[in-house]
Amino acid sequence: MNNFNPREVLAAAADSIALALGASVNHPHPLALQLSLREIAQAAGVLARPGQAGQDKRSVMALGLAIGDFSKALSEGAQVLTVRTYQAQAQHLKFCSVVEVKNFRPADLPALDADIALEPLGENAEITQSLGLAAAGASQARLTTYAKIIGLSRQAIINDDLGGFTRALVELGASAARLEARLVAAALESNPMLDDGAAVFHENYGNVIFDNTFDMGGAMAKLRNQATAAGVKADLAAKHLVVCPELEYTARAFIQKIGLDIQVSALAYLPATRWYLLADTQINPVIGTLRLKNAASAVRVIEQRRRPDGIDGSAVKVVADLGACLLSRAGIVRGGL
Q1: Is residue 128 part of a domain?
Q2: Same structural domain, 51 and 104
Q3: Beta bridge partners of 299
Q4: Using CA atoms, how far apart are residues 265 and 277, in angstroms rounded to an integer?
Q5: CB 42 within 8 Å of CB 57
Q6: Do 97 and 9 fall into the same domain?
Q7: Residues 198 and 161 in one domain
Q8: What mean pLDDT is predicted for residues 220-235?
Q9: Can you give the pLDDT at residue 1?
Q10: Same domain for 285 and 225
Q11: Average confidence (pLDDT) over 314-337
Q12: Is residue 169 domain-shared with residue 219, that is, in the same domain?
């Protein structure tokens, strides 16, 4: 080591690894650009057994790799790149709402009708009380955990080579987004029964239109005329057009040609001819992506305190807790046969 304080090295390790992986770091540690993977592992070894600082560097490094400190630094540095890749791939987040759940058990997620109408108030009139109405919501939803362990070999650490590790992180971040997009598509296509005993999509609810291309006029009118749980017209403006891959080019060209302020997204797992028109999700959430309560992201990288068999170096685990469900039958129109 270059006479660095081992505690300072470990304090800078996560920033150093994140920068080496090509991720941007706000206000990195001053040592971050000066460290190698080998020096980080050696610092971990020195702190594990302070009396061996003058011993052979290879044995010190080996000890550092055998304990959790190096894997912890590796996971914290890898987190930045993995989450960034997930976010870049997860285009479905544009039209989905995040729904927090407490645990991994099936959870009831009733919609709450926010349509509490203001009333005229005359002089000396009393203000009437209003109650939120429990609308027909999603019956049940649950998170599922997906995970993969990836290793960084001792030789790669000695050579300060993160190339293969970087590619694995990028692929796993993108994989988490693809899995979630698949769950979103499945939720849209499932047409489940809500807690009022009726399906989400039905002509009776003004959210189905039988057109293989885009009857935008009809679909936009349906969003305006849909009834809320309080029994008034929703008057929702169209904001998102979600289409199957076969319609993506046509949809983008169509929206651009007529100049509508509607965002186009495509989902790979929607069947051919399928499309959905959605209102602004901040006003009327329709499709929810589940998040564990207080989780910063759907995907995370965690340390491996015990190295898996067959990995002569260090390892981390990439974990994604994913789920999706329909929240409401209002605010969405389904098109296609």
Answers
A1: no
A2: no
A3: 320
A4: 10
A5: yes
A6: no
A7: yes
A8: 90
A9: 52
A10: yes
A11: 92
A12: yes
